[in-house]
Amino acid sequence: MTFTSVQPTEVASPRSPSAPPLVTIEGLHVTFERGGRDVRALRGVDLSIAPGEILGVVGESGSGKSVLGLSMLGLLPTEPPPRLEGSIEVCGVDVVHADDDTRRRLRRRHLGAIFQDPMTSLNPTMRIGRQLAEVAGTEAEAVRLLDAVGVPEPKRRLRSFPHELSGGLRQRVMIAMAVAGEPSLVVADEPTTALDVTVQAQILELLGHLRDELGCSFVLVTHDLGVAAQVSDRIAVLYGGRIAEVGAAADVLERPAHPYTVGLLRSRLTLQARRAGPLPTLIGEPPDPRAHPPGCAFAPRCTLHVDACDETLPDLVSAGGHPGVAACIRLDVPLAEEVALVDAWPEVEAVSAIEPAVRLTAVFKDFELKSGWRSKEVLHALRGVDLEVAEGESVALVGESGCGKSTLLRAIAGLLPIDDGAIALGPGARPQMVFQDAGASLTPWLTVGELIGERLRSEGCGRSERDRRVREALQLVGLPAEVAEAKAVQLSGGQRQRVALARATVVPPEVLLCDEPTSALDVSLAATVLNLLGRLRRELGMAMLFVTHDLGAARVVGDRIAVMYLGRIVEVGPAEEVASAPQHPYTQALLGAVPGVGAAARRTRLEGEPASPLRPPSGCAFHPRCSQAVDACHTDGPELVTLRGSSGHRVACGPAHAAGGWG
What we know:
The protein has 663 residues and is α/β, with parallel strands linked by helices.
């Protein structure tokens, strides 16, 4: 990847003490008014960013990360206008006190933005080329930008609409638009959230390359310390609208000083996380920005808490363990392992398998897509899927976007008809779906009690019985009975996901189908939801099919892991065996792309994009991206074959079969 016509600006090293800051933030307060109450999103933030530096901004939802990024861009919502105190100086302009024209000139000349969901940022009615030309000026420059950010066949892509591109390609288009004007600062707000690990690795590598080539600074907003560890020079940890800790990335990750940072690190799902018992999580909930406590906002969740923490708002002081700073009055106390506690979910033995709860036999599903006024194309979503899920068993289904995971779940739920093959459910089995975006799947004008109670109408329950069972369902997922009177919009993301689980399990299903329920959640909240799913599955005796792109989550939540690629299962076996000794080159690439922290941060990159399901390649669909491919892979489609000496570990790979590792 090269930027032949872009001349990198002369910048000092971000580690050079002589480099003047590109961004200086002092005493920044941002307050919104909602429902007649003040929402204090930021409460006295002091921060600087050097030229050419990548600053990772990390914290749970509601910590103020996105508000901080939007404040630097001068793009805070204006209806009603927020109250700002303090100063934000970006490239010599005080964004807080500048007029609208000055902010617009600043954004046009010096700033770029990459937002979390490119589908909501790109105009769905305009082709990519026209949208890029608005910022690039000419079609030739648009082609150069797409080529620079790694979009294959850039000239052809100019004619595409956003919905015709994969998530990774759409994010690359957003990055191309962000850097078109050779900005001094780019704010990237969760640019990799909900992306596959392989695409995530490519996007992070691209950001680092852009910094090196253009000399611009990046603010990388993320809730995952593993993502921040990949490219950040420094990391700032936000909590309750204030900076809890900031320092060099290696120092913060290897020698964290603030209890909250320790909790975030210990809550991360890794390939080494324990599988027996609940995952470690932060106790409690983040503070309500409408009613911050007078002292340290983290005190109610901290095991190092003393009375003074409730009274004193801590300042940033030397962290002690590293050259950075942290806001804690107990930095002299060694951080205990118990900083991140485990939710007390009881351990219950899994139900013994008797009959398959779900059996898929050679399942095919195609979609017809219009490609013109009269012509159509066929998208091959599922291409002969065979899979069984036993009673009480959990199977994690893993693969990149577009491989057919969600289509398979919807077919099992009866939401999509299949074209060929068979889907058999156990006697009386009732599948229930839990979707990725709980906020979008809960009716906004109904109360939580009404949403859950709807499922009980077919049970013939009276009102008092229905209310009792709704309360029991809420209690089972760790929510108080009072939540029944609230509407979904009044709840946090984690609470909405728990409501979705309560609704799906108030009438216990035999099969629970989970479609990426943790992909957009904070690390601690994701661990809490996975603990909850494990507890519900064991207590209710449900089978579960759990779709995810996170191998760490798949290893923890699944008894077995099934790996899909372009509509087919290429590997399936016991979770620990697949995660520790993957046999298919694609599974190996997925595991190699998982982000880590510290010594585990090094990872491999899977080159290229998945083949289009409109035109799947002959033979093994993975062969165009496989370093182990041989001539036979181009023509022969391998079948799933059981490994010699394994207990049900099956792989579809011709070269591995030729090596003699099969039974």
